[in-house]
């Protein structure tokens, strides 16, 4: 009887060891298996979630298959059980272990938001409203609301122009104001740097003046080699006391009433931004200028140009007098006519 008992105990031990080995092997296989997703997946783990909640969420979103080995894996590798709340990006090539390592690292997904040179604050606010995972704190899209939220003072209270266009990365639940503040600080630093290195004797009374000219340059041309020439036209006109007569300022001053075309009445209607009707610079910037336009405003080319008009080929024709300018306008209209007839 004793011998039989020993045999039974041995068999039981072997069975237990076999079961343990099988469980260990299955758990390892599970840990090294790929996630059951076909494309990149954004996953949010709420604050306070434990193992049961995490496993249930992963299964319900079809990120992993139902398995008895999930809890076993967390016991075998307890460092994987230290997952943190947040929003993460999973990819199809990830294994279950790599996914859990990501959750334990707390390295949340970053989302890009691109603010393009030459766009206005209203466009930025619209982008923020539509951006995924942004925490919306601004009560409305009024510029005064933005200025108050960021505590802007002095010449920056106008808001427009004082935010640096670039691609910004953010994590889920980043406040809209935090992104705007980052862009504002970058523009402040950029303007300060450019202002310190600008040419002498430019007709600017303040950094806001330089930023205003840079914003007009940004709206007038996208051709990099033209920016300093465009800048020279506006600087020459300011020095001579000529009105700037630049369409983008009129359009900005028209606000929502601009529907894609301007009439003679629009050009003649005074606003704080209509440079056909007022002398000097408009009230402030009309868009967010990029680095190249800021540099052009600070380092205009030395020319005698007073006019420029589109050449119909993507660039502009620059002239020094009205007669030459009118001829350039005629050439442009003829070029457009020929294109339309093709």
TrEMBL record:
It catalyses: a peptidoglycan chain = a peptidoglycan chain with N-acetyl-1,6-anhydromuramyl-[peptide] at the reducing end + a peptidoglycan chain with N-acetylglucosamine at the non-reducing end. One of its GO terms (biological process) is peptidoglycan biosynthetic process. Gene3D superfamilies: Classic Zinc Finger (3.30.160.60). It comes from the Bacteria. GO terms for molecular function: lytic endotransglycosylase activity. One of its GO terms (cellular component) is plasma membrane. Its EC number is 4.2.2.29. Keywords: Cell cycle, Cell division, Cell inner membrane, Cell membrane, Cell wall biogenesis/degradation, Lyase, Membrane, Transmembrane, Transmembrane helix. CDD domains: MltG_like. The record marks 220 as: Important for catalytic activity. Functions as a peptidoglycan terminase that cleaves nascent peptidoglycan strands endolytically to terminate their elongation. Belongs to the transglycosylase MltG family. HAMAP family: MltG. This is Endolytic murein transglycosylase. It comes from Candidatus Erwinia dacicola. The lineage of its organism: Bacteria, Pseudomonadati, Pseudomonadota, Gammaproteobacteria, Enterobacterales.
């Amino acid at each position: 009887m004793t011998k039989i008992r020993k045999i039974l105990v041995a068999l039981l031990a072997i069975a237990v060891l076999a079961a343990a080995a099988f469980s260990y092997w299955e758990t390892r296989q599970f840990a090294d298996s790929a996630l059951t997703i076909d494309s990149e997946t954004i996953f949010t783990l709420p604050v306070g979630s434990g193992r049961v909640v995490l496993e249930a969420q992963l299964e319900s979103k079809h990120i992993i298959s139902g398995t008895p080995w999930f809890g076993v894996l967390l016991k075998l590798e307890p460092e994987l059980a230290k997952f943190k709340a947040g929003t993460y990006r999973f990819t199809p090539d990830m294994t279950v272990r790599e996914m859990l390592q990501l959750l334990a690292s707390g390295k949340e997904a970053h989302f890009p938001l691109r603010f393009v040179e030459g766009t206005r604050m209203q466009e930025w606010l619209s982008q923020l409203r539509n951006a995924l995972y942004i925490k919306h704190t601004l009560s409305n899209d009024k510029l005064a609301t933005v200025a108050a939220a960021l505590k802007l003072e002095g010449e920056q209270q106008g808001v427009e122009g004082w935010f640096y266009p670039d691609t910004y990365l953010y994590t889920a639940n980043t406040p809209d104001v935090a992104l705007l503040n980052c862009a504002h600080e970058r523009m402040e630093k950029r303007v300060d740097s450019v202002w310190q290195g600008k040419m002498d004797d430019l007709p600017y009374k303040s950094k806001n003046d330089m930023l205003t000219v840079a914003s007009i340059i940004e709206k007038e041309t996208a051709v990099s080699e033209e920016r300093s020439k465009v800048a020279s036209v506006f600087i020459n006109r300011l020095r001579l006391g000529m009105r700037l007569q630049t369409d983008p300022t009129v359009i900005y001053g028209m606000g929502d009433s601009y529907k894609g075309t301007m009439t003679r009445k629009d050009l003649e209607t005074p606003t704080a931004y209509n440079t056909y009707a007022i002398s000097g610079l408009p009230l402030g910037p009309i868009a967010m200028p990029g680095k190249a336009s800021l540099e052009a405003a600070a380092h205009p080319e030395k020319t005698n140009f007073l006019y420029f008009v589109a050449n119909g080929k993507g660039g502009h024709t620059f002239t020094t007098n009205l007669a030459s300018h009118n001829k350039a306008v005629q050439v442009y209209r003829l070029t457009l006519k020929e294109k339309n007839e093709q």
